[in-house]
Amino acid sequence: MDSFEINKILGAILGTCIVLLVTSFTAGAIFAPVMPEKPGFEIAVKEAPEGGAKEAAAPPSEPIEKLLQTASVEKGAATAKVCGACHTFEKGGPNRIGPNLYGIVGDKKGEGRGFNFSAAMKAKGGTWTFDDLNQFLTSPKTFVPGTAMTFAGLPRDSQRADVIDYLHTLADTPVPLPTAAK
Q: Alpha-carbon distance 146 to 115, whole Å?
């Protein structure tokens, strides 16, 4: 190969590199990306009040005794289907991510059921009353700070009353429904 052939090959390579470089500069000038001031997405989170204390969820608007007067077991069973992802409801049913809920009304919090409850639930103590279930279903993390339950809660009073009425029927001898004060 003579020097003329080598010069043509090197010229073609150099010319191609110059064309690519000019094209890159031109495209960068025309299609310059607009960079955001702050990278990422902003996630709206409620700010904790001064002093680092956690904000409590709004308490239920009406007493559970009054809400249970108009509650529907059928609607409660339908609403409780979302709980079925983590809980079972039949007598002697297995535990899943959460414990079996048969006979939960009037039962001890954080004990028995062959389930390993979180330390926060064990420390809560007491029994599951209608009012406690109402508060827990409103916001589990507020009622039992540190609970492992990730469910956000049921915001509507009627939904919670329906679910509690349904849970109350899941027992060999159901706890009597409370009566509303006149």
A: 17
